[in-house]
Design brief:
By secondary structure, the protein is mainly beta. It has a single domain, classed as Jelly Rolls (Sandwich). Helices cover 9% and strands 42% of the residues. It contains 3 helices and 19 strands. Strands 4, 7, 8, 10, 11, 12, 13, 14 and 18 form a 9-stranded antiparallel beta sheet that branches. It is globular, with a radius of gyration of 22 Å.
Length: 314
Amino acid sequence: MRSPSLLQMQVLCFVIAFPVLLNQVSAQLVPGTGMRLTKVGDDFEDEDWKWVPNGAKASREQDGAVRSPTGYSANRRWFESPKRGMPDVIRRVDTPPNGLPGSRGALLLQTLNSGIPGRPSYQMEQDDFIMSCSSRIGAISVARNPSCTVRVWLPPYEKWENRSGSHFGYRIDLKTTKTERKKRLFFTKSVKVPESYWPGFFIEFHSSHDPRFEQDEAVLLIRGNNGGHEVTGPKLAPGWWTLGMSVTGDGQVHYYARQGVDDLRPQDHLYSSFPYGYRAERFATHFFNSVNYNDGRTWSTPFIIDDPAIFVLR
């Protein structure tokens, strides 16, 4: 048997390395790359920006009640989640120091009654603040390589809710198709069904009053790996952070973060996965979670966001 030629060896090495190279390339779809979609997104520069609550918040997840009509922003770029309801405070504020150059307005998100209105659950719950995307421009095919970014301001630790656990979320709404086995009278049939899932980030706080931790600290959690479990990311100092996610044509999600407000770079890549084992087909929107201990007295940590945006590569 003849030994392989040099050319054959080079081809063999390329074939072996190609999946790794492909993964590295796809992981470098840096959020913010390509064209910014101006029909969605917000910069909060309008001094008349306001939120219209429209009565008691929804709590369909807990008790099946949507309590329509739901809340919305006057510019129609945001809406209340019919599943969990809206944060109790959604207010335009002056941009904190060291924000985006030229930015004069940002948005404060904070909540108190995160569950069923008037019924404290005495457990951790969350409210959602959702960008109008698919209702304005339609869901985006992953073939267009969608991505999203936001600047998030973390307050000094003394301003945080004194509780170890998740305090704030930044996630995306993805759509895919999965196969389910449906039983019929005498046989079982495979059926294609639509599926929504919500990968993204959670900001977790470790309180120095918790005996498990020596000092206050914040950690970025990534949700999640191929099984849907959270992956521990970097520690976060108070101040501004830029977060972003991208979805490549293979349905994979890529997570990025850097301190400050500058645009994301390839070296800010943290992790890539097929969350829950799904391959994304469409990108519907991105949204935020305000999380607290729902006892009717304890306010969530006040986070401020600025310049949330959605991009497509093509």
